[in-house]
C-alpha cells in the first residue's frame, strides 16, 4: 500500500527556516520523481518543487527559487524540503506527491505558518 507521511511543519517567524520530511512506503522509491505541493486557504494547490528519480535534477516555483531546496535520501525512502528565509506568503499546507503510472498519491500534509 502506497503511503506518504509529511512532517516538520510549524509556526515560525519571517526569515526563519524549516525542513519538511516525507516518509514513503509501498512503492519503488528510486523509480519515481518526487514533488512537494502547497495549498494556502482559498487558493489552488501549487507545485513548489520537484526532484527527479535520479536526484540529479530539480525544479522550483519562481516564488521559492533560491530559498527552498528539495532533496531525497534513497536509502531511507525519504524526500525533504528545506525552506529558508520563510515569508508570510509561504503559509500553506505542504503536501508530498508521487505519480505512479496514472495515479497520483498524496500525504495528509503538514501545516507551515509564517507569522511575526
Over the alpha carbons, how many angstroms does the gyration radius reach? Answer: 13 Å
- Helix-residue proportion: under 10%
Give the assembly state of these chains: single chain
Helix and strand sequence: EEEEEEEEEEE
| Derived structural class | mainly beta
User: What is the residue-averaged pLDDT?
Assistant: 97
Principal-axis shape equals globular
| Helix count from the secondary structure assignment | 0
Low-confidence runs of at least 5 consecutive residues: none
| Count of extended strands | 11
What topology does this entry show?
Elements: E1 3-7, E2 11-12, E3 18-25, E4 34-39, E5 46-51, E6 58-60, E7 68-73, E8 78-83, E9 92-100, E10 103-106, E11 110-114
Parallel strand pairs: 2-11
Antiparallel strand pairs: 1-3, 3-8, 4-5, 4-9, 5-6, 7-8, 9-10, 9-11
Structure description:
It is built from no helices and 11 strands. It is 0% helix and 52% strand. Strands 2, 4, 5, 6, 9, 10 and 11 form a 7-stranded mixed beta sheet that branches. Strands 1-3-8-7 form a 4-stranded antiparallel beta sheet, with no helix packed on it. The model has no long low-confidence stretch (mean pLDDT 97).
Amino acid at each position: 500500500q502506497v503511503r506518504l507521511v509529511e512532517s516538520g511543519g510549524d509556526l515560525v517567524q519571517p526569515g526563519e527556516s524549516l525542513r519538511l520530511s516525507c516518509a514513503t512506503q509501498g512503492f519503488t522509491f528510486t523509480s519515481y520523481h518526487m514533488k512537494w505541493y502547497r495549498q494556502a486557504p482559498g487558493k489552488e494547490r501549487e507545485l513548489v518543487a520537484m526532484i527527479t528519480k535520479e536526484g540529479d535534477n530539480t525544479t522550483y516555483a519562481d516564488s521559492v527559487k533560491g530559498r527552498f531546496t528539495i532533496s531525497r535520501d534513497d536509502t531511507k525512502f525519504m524526500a525533504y524540503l528545506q525552506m529558508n528565509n520563510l515569508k508570510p506568503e509561504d503559509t500553506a499546507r505542504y503536501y508530498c506527491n508521487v505519480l505512479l503510472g496514472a495515479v497520483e498519491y498524496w500525504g495528509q500534509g503538514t501545516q507551515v505558518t509564517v507569522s511575526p
